[in-house]
Amino acid sequence: MQPFTRLTSRTVAMPAANIDTDQIIPARFLTTTTRQGLGQQLFADWRYDAAGLPRADFVLNRKESAGAQILVAGRNFGCGSSREHAPWALSDYGFRAIISTEIADIFTSNALKNGLLPVVVPEAVSAWLLAHPGIEVRLDIAARTLTLPDGTDVPFPLEAFAQHCLLEGVDELGFLLARRAEIEAFERRQQ
Amino acid sequence: MMQPSRTLFDKVWQSHEVSAGTADVPAVLYIDLHLIHEVTSPQAFQVLRERGLTVRRADRTLATMDHSTPTRSAQVFGGAPIALDSAARQVAQLEHNCAEFGVELLAMHHAQRGIVHVIGPELGLSQPGQTIVCGDSHTSTHGAVGALAFGIGTTEVGHVFATQCLLQKKPKALAINVSGRRTEGVTAKDLILAIIGQVGVDGGTGHVIEYRGAAIEALSMDERMTVCNMSIEAGARAGLIAPDEVTFEYLAGRPRAPHGDAWQRALEGWRSLPSDAGARFDREVSVDAAAVEPMITYGTNPGMVIPIGASIPERRGDAAFARALSYMGLTAGQPIKDQKVNVVFLGSCTNARLSDLRDAARVLRGRHIAHGLTMLVVPGSQEVKRQAETEGLDRVFLDAGAEWRESGCSMCLGMNGDTVPRGAYSVSTSNRNFEGRQGAGARTLLASPLTAAACAVTGRVTDPREFL
Question: How far apart are CA B381 and CA B127, in angstroms?
Answer without folding.
Answer: 19
